[in-house]
Every structure is written in C-alpha cells, then in structure tokens.
Write a structure and sequence with these properties.
The protein has 189 residues and is α/β, with parallel strands linked by helices. It has a single domain, classed as 3-Layer(aba) Sandwich (Glutaredoxin), CATH 3.40.30.10. The chain contains five helices and eight strands; from the N terminus they run αββββαβαβαββα. It has helices at 3-14, 84-100, 116-126, 139-143, 175-186; strands spanning 40-42, 55-57, 63-65, 73-79, 105-112, 132-135, 155-159, 165-170. The strands form two sheets. It has a six-stranded mixed sheet. Strands 2-3 form a two-stranded antiparallel ribbon. β7 and β8 form a beta hairpin. α2 (84-100) packs across α5 (175-186). The longest helix has 17 residues, at 84-100. The radius of gyration is 15 Å and the shape is globular. 38% of the residues are buried.
Length: 189
C-alpha cells in the first residue's frame, strides 16, 4: 500500500520548520503540519478520540509507553532540540510537570526528527524531570493520524484518565494556559 509511505514522507518533510503564527487548527485525520500559536483547544468528553498506542525507547535508553500511565492524566509534548519555540517552552513544561505530579499528572516527551546527540544535550541543559521517547523517524506523531495529530513542533496533547485526547496545543504553550488545561482535565472524574 503506497498511501502510508507517502503520508509518512509528506509528514516528515512538512515538519522541517518550527511552529509560528497559526491560521487555523487542522481537524482530526489531517496530518499536514501548520504553524501554531500555542492556543489550547479543549475537546468535550463525549467528542474525544482515543489516543493510539505510544511507545518507544527513551533518550536515556529506557522504555516508555502511554499505556503505563493509564488512569492518569498525561501531557504528551512533541519537541526537537532544533526548534526555538521548544526551547522557549521547556521551562514551562518542567515547572508544570513538577507542580502537578502529586496530583497524578504525568509528562512524556516525544523528541521528533532530531539527532540523538543534540536531543541529549537539550535534556542535559533543560533537565525536564520526565522522560522523552526518541522518535527520529516520526512514527509516534504519525500514529495519531485519524485522531488529533500533533501537526506542529512543538505540539502538546493532554490525554485524560480514559486514554482519550482531551486537549491539543499547536506551538509553544504558555504557563497559565497549560496549567489551566491540565487542572481542568485533572479535575474530571
């Protein structure tokens, strides 16, 4: 089947630059990469799509899966060391991850389309406090095709306790917006 390889190549080519100003949010199933402004889009519980399986080797050589965090709110952040907005939002993610951990919120990074040495240097510099899957070929991002794709670098997805995509931000997130969205999803029962 030729569609999947073509879609993968198109996805990888399209992400050559970082997110900038956003014109519109892509819809579910849309795998085009667009510029993002960091605005968080929340999805009503009845309209949420189940996140696909996410798994891979972490930058430190371990294994990470989204399934390991089932029953918890998970913030899934797609980033790359070459992306200036990713560097700018790193302290925000680190602080909110530390602040919300006691409430059962887990953070998982996905280092996308990056050189491993550069990604490791980024992690040493920023010390996020949570693991990142090393996803150089973009398989994790591509697995979201048909749901709510990340569609920008950086992108942040908030996964609810039932494993559904509760929110998405395309572009660098702000502290108050991300904390508010994580708190809102965390308060759902």
């Amino acid at each position: 089947m030729r569609a999947k390889p073509f879609a993968a190549v198109a996805l990888l080519v399209a992400v050559a630059g970082c997110a900038g100003n956003q014109g519109s949010q892509p819809q579910a199933g849309d795998t085009r990469f667009v510029a993002g402004d960091g605005k968080i889009t929340m999805f009503e519980a009845g309209n949420r799509k189940t996140a696909p399986p996410v798994e891979g080797k972490t930058l430190d050589g371990g294994d990470a899966t989204l399934a390991a965090h089932r029953g918890k709110v998970v913030v899934l952040n797609f980033w790359a060391s070459w992306c200036a907005p990713c560097r700018a939002e790193a302290p925000v993610l680190k602080d909110i991850a530390a602040k919300t951990k006691a409430a059962g919120v887990e953070f998982l990074g996905v280092d996308f389309k990056d050189r491993q040495a550069d990604a490791l240097a980024f992690e040493r510099s920023h010390q996020p406090g949570y693991p990142s899957i090393f996803d150089q070929p973009g398989k994790v991002a591509l697995s979201f095709q048909g749901t709510v794709p990340p569609a920008a670098i950086p992108s942040t997805l908030i996964i609810d306790r039932q494993g559904r995509i509760a929110a998405r931000a395309l572009g660098a997130v702000t502290y108050n917006d991300l904390l508010g969205a994580v708190t809102k999803v965390g308060n759902e029962r």
